[in-house]
Design goal:
9 helices; 4-stranded antiparallel β-sheet; 3 domains; Endonuclease I-creI; 302 residues; 27% strand; alpha+beta
C-alpha cells in the first residue's frame, strides 16, 4: 500500500508555544486495511504533514517542507507525485552525473547544470531526469570556455533541493566536503550504477599503463575528505564485486588556481587483470570508446 502525502489543518493544542517548526512525531506506524505502513508525521505551524515511508524511501515531502517558510508549504503541492523519493539505480546515476560533470547551485538560485561535449550525452541525462521527475532542461552552447562544450540547465528549485537533500553537493565540488550517500552504498544495484556513471564522467582508461583511473581535485584543506571518498569507493568495489584498486594517492604537484587557492589531485587506479575484467562485467562504462579501450587492455593482459 502506498500512502500519499497529505496535510491537515488542525488547531494548536497542548499549550505549545508558536514556533516555526514543531515536531509531534518523527515516525510511527499507521494501520490501514490490515497492513502496517511506516509513516512520517511532522507538525508545522498548525499543518499536520503525513508522508508514507517504505524500505526504498530516501526522502519524504515532510523532509523538504522544513526548508520552506510556513506560508510556502502549498508551493510543494504541485510536486506531490515526486514523493516519496525512492532509491533506484537510475537516481543513483543522476547523483553520480552531478558529482562528476554536473553542478548544483544552492542559495539563492537552486538549479542544476550538466556539461558535456556530446549532445547525445546531454539528451541521455535529460531523459533520465524526465523519466523520474517529468521535467526537462534546456541545452545551450557554453561560450565561457575553450572546450566547445554544451550545458544542460534545469531551473527548478524543488528538484535542486531534492537532489541536494539526497546527497548531491551544492557549490564548487573542489571546495565542498561530501561523500557517497548511504542509500547508494546500501544497495548493490544502486552502487553499480553510481560507479558506472562516475567513471563514465570522471574516469579514463590508460591503454599504455593497462589500467582504469579516476582523479578528483580537492582544495588543500579538504585533501583528507577526498581521500576518504575514494577509500569508501574502494572498499565497496571490493566488498560487492571483488574489484581491487590501488590505495588513493596524491598527485605529485599542488595546483595554484587563478584565485590563489591551492588544489591537489587525488587518484585511484584499477590495475589487476581480474579486477579489470570484473569491472567490465559488473559495472562497465556508458562511453563506448572507454569500453573498447577496457576490452583492449583486458585482452593484452591475458
Amino acid at each position: 500500500m502506498v500512502l500519499k502525502a497529505f496535510a491537515l489543518r488542525i488547531p494548536i493544542v497542548l499549550n505549545l508555544e508558536v514556533m516555526d517548526l514543531i515536531f509531534l512525531f518523527n515516525t510511527f506506524y499507521f494501520s490501514s486495511t490490515g497492513h502496517w505502513t511506516f509513516v512520517c508525521v511532522k507538525y508545522i505551524n498548525s499543518i499536520l504533514i503525513i508522508d508514507s515511508m517504505n524500505n526504498d524511501c530516501i526522502l519524504n515531502k515532510c523532509d523538504l517542507i522544513e526548508l520552506y517558510k510556513s506560508r510556502d508549504y502549498k508551493y510543494l503541492d504541485k510536486y506531490s507525485t515526486w514523493f516519496p523519493v525512492l532509491a533506484s539505480p537510475q537516481l543513483a546515476g543522476i547523483v553520480a552525473d552531478l558529482m562528476g560533470d554536473g553542478h548544483l547551485q544552492g542559495n539563492p538560485k537552486w538549479r542544476i547544470d550538466y556539461c558535456s561535449k556530446s549532445l547525445e550525452e546531454l539528451a541521455r541525462f535529460n531523459e533520465e531526469l524526465y523519466s523520474l521527475f517529468k521535467i526537462k532542461g534546456k541545452i545551450r552552447e557554453c561560450k565561457t570556455n575553450y572546450y566547445k562544450t554544451f550545458n544542460l540547465g534545469v531551473n527548478n528549485k524543488v528538484l535542486a533541493r531534492i537532489l541536494n537533500k539526497i546527497g548531491v553537493p551544492s557549490g564548487s565540488k573542489v571546495f565542498s566536503s561530501f561523500n557517497i550517500p548511504k542509500w547508494i552504498l546500501a544497495d548493490k544495484r544502486c552502487f553499480s550504477r553510481f560507479v558506472n556513471r562516475l567513471f563514465s564522467c570522471e574516469g579514463s582508461v590508460d591503454v599504455n599503463s593497462k589500467c582504469i583511473e579516476i582523479k578528483m581535485y580537492k582544495s588543500e584543506d579538504l585533501m583528507d575528505e577526498g581521500i576518504a571518498f575514494f577509500q569508501i569507493l574502494r572498499g565497496n568495489l571490493y566488498n560487492y564485486y571483488g574489484i581491487e584498486t590501488t590505495r588513493p594517492f596524491l598527485e605529485g604537484r599542488i595546483n595554484i588556481r587563478k584565485d590563489g587557492f591551492k588544489t591537489i589531485g587525488i587518484w585511484l587506479k584499477i590495475k589487476k587483470r581480474d579486477s579489470l575484467d570484473r569491472f567490465y562485467v559488473y559495472i562497465g562504462f556508458d562511453d563506448p570508446n572507454k569500453n573498447i579501450k577496457l576490452r583492449k587492455i583486458i585482452s593484452i593482459s591475458q
